């Protein structure tokens, strides 16, 4: 066995912890006989603090009669073998177990650090669509231009805004999130721009607004489509001049804050309907990131589920060790209308309510989805076909809008609208 494995022999759990911190090992072997209370606690701490090591226990059968040892092995160890190990057959079986534990850990490692990308703020994924978003974040973060993040509710638009902030030169400054749809109409003006003492009834002191609080940092305006029309004028002025006026004051305040906005509605359509200022829309939409819904990155679903399982398991006393095969299949087939937010909520619910070693579809509330295969709506099929034909038309015309519009049988204005609708860059 020694010829095939690189082995660290230690007799103290604290020394083992130091070795694993400097040089992680995929597999660990621990002898559990004759443990003092202190040693038991140290070993429990060791195996609990090393999630990327699969531990195998060695112990005499009589040790399994102690409830504490049984619980330790059951809760924290990959497998166990009985002592002594005099026979060649037993040694071969142990080596086979070590090899299997090593292989399983190698399968997990690329998912966590090699084949997939994990940005700040729990952004996880390896699908083509999310990798495109990660690439856009890297390119956009270094600029100071406004960014408009679009996508369905629950796709992680605020996480992307945070990633842009953390990767920017403003990372040492504040990140101030504002949900424009959650603020009352009567307060949103003073909340965004601040107010002076006595500016209105109840204004007992001067208040610094959210935009001013983001000075030298980033202001994130979520649900920007809910911003009232009259306040859109003030926001436009700030974007143009980088100045604000507090309510009840004529003094001009200079504010150096980057604006990132997000929406789950079609702002272009709102502009056409007169519900959103066109000039503000173009000011905000200098750079655009389209966040894909979870159903369009199906290969990330299981990865995300396992990732959030590990993160959320620390909050509960769940006996679960992972997901059943049926649960993984049902998650992959589910449509996820609530996107990543719904996935997190279902995993959290399963950890709280589940009573099994493996989380089931019933624990996730997905048992009825087995009879409902994932299908695309007619609208989604139409959009995909429309987007593909536009790209072909642009390619065939050498990116000439006039010729592409003629080939597609639409006007130039319509083609420009379709380019914006599908977020197609010329």
Summarize the structure.
It comes from Amphritea atlantica. The protein is of the alpha/beta class and 426 residues long.
The portion of residues forming beta strands comes to 5-15%
**N- and C-termini, Cα separation:** 60 Å
Return the average pLDDT rounded to an integer.
Answer: 84
Report the sheet with the most strands, covering strand number, pairing sense and barrel closure.
5 strands, parallel
CATH class of the largest domain: Alpha Beta
Shape: elongated
The total beta strand count reads: 14
Specify the structural class: alpha/beta
Low-confidence stretches: 109-121
CATH topology of the largest domain: Rossmann fold
Give the proportion of residues in helices: 40-55%
Q: CATH superfamily of the largest domain, please? A: P-loop containing nucleotide triphosphate hydrolases
Number of domains: 4
Provide the spatial order of strands within the biggest beta sheet: 7-8-11-6-12
Give me the number of helical elements: 18
* CATH-scheme architecture of the largest domain: 3-Layer(aba) Sandwich
Radius of gyration: 28 Å
Domain Sigma-54 factor interaction: 123-352
Organism: Amphritea atlantica
Keywords: ATP-binding, DNA-binding, Nucleotide-binding, Plasmid, Transcription, Transcription regulation
Protein name: Sigma-54-dependent Fis family transcriptional regulator
What layout of secondary structure does this protein have?
Elements: H1 13-22, E1 27-31, H2 37-48, E2 54-59, H3 67-76, E3 79-82, H4 88-113, E4 117-119, E5 123-125, H5 128-141, E6 147-150, H6 157-166, E7 175-179, H7 188-193, H8 210-213, E8 218-222, H9 229-241, E9 243-244, E10 253-254, E11 258-263, H10 267-272, H11 278-284, E12 287-290, H12 301-312, E13 322-323, H13 325-333, H14 339-353, E14 358-359, H15 361-364, H16 378-396, H17 401-408, H18 412-421
Parallel strand pairs: 1-2, 2-3, 6-11, 6-12, 7-8, 8-11, 13-14
Antiparallel strand pairs: 4-5, 9-10
Domain Sigma-54 factor interaction: 123-352
InterPro entries: AAA+_ATPase (IPR003593), AAA_lid_NorR (IPR058031), Homeodomain-like_sf (IPR009057), HTH_Fis (IPR002197), P-loop_NTPase (IPR027417), Sigma_54_int (IPR002078), Sigma_54_int_dom_ATP-bd_1 (IPR025662), Sigma_54_int_dom_ATP-bd_2 (IPR025943)
Pfam family, one: Sigma54_activat
């Amino acid at each position: 066995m020694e010829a095939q494995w690189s082995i660290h022999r230690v007799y103290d759990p604290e020394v083992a912890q130091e070795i694993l911190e400097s040089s992680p090992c995929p597999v660990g072997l621990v002898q559990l006989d004759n443990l003092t209370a202190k040693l038991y606690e140290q070993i429990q701490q060791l195996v609990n603090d090393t999630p990327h090591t699969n531990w195998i226990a060695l112990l005499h059968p009589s040790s399994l009669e102690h409830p504490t040892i049984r619980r330790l092995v059951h809760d924290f160890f990959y497998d166990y073998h009985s002592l002594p190990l005099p026979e060649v057959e037993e040694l071969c079986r142990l080596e086979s177990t070590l090899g299997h534990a090593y292989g399983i850990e190698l399968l997990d490692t690329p998912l966590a650090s090699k084949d997939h990308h994990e940005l700040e703020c729990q952004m996880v994924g390896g699908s083509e669509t999310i990798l495109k978003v990660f690439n856009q974040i890297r390119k956009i973060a270094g600029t100071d231009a406004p960014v408009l993040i679009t996508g369905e509710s629950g796709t992680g638009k605020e996480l992307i805004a945070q990633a842009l902030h953390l990767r920017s030169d403003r990372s040492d400054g504040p990140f101030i999130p504002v949900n424009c749809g959650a603020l009352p109409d009567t307060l949103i003006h003073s909340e965004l721009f601040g107010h002076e003492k006595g500016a209105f009834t109840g204004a007992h002191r001067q208040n610094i607004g959210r935009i001013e609080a983001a000075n030298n940092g980033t202001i994130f305006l979520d649900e920007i489509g809910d911003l009232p029309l009259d306040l859109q004028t003030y926001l436009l002025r700030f974007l143009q001049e980088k100045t604000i006026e507090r309510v009840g004051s004529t003094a001009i305040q200079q504010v150096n804050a980057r604006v990132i906005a997000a929406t789950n509605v079609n702002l272009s359509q709102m502009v056409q309907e007169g519900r959103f200022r066109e000039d503000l829309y173009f000011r905000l939409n200098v750079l655009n990131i389209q966040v894909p819904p979870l159903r369009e990155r199906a290969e990330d679903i299981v990865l995300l589920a396992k990732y959030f399982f590990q993160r959320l398991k620390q909050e509960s006393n769940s006996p679960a060790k992972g997901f059943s095969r049926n649960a993984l299949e049902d998650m992959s087939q589910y449509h996820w209308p609530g996107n990543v937010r719904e996935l997190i909520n279902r995993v959290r619910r399963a950890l709280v309510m589940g009573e099994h070693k493996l989380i089931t579809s019933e624990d996730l509330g997905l048992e009825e989805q087995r009879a409902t295969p994932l299908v695309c709506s007619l609208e989604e099929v139409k959009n995909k076909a429309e987007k593909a034909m536009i790209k072909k038309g642009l390619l065939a015309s050498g990116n000439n809008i006039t010729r592409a519009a003629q080939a597609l049988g639409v006007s130039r204005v319509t083609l420009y609208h379709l380019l914006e609708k599908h977020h197609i860059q010329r």
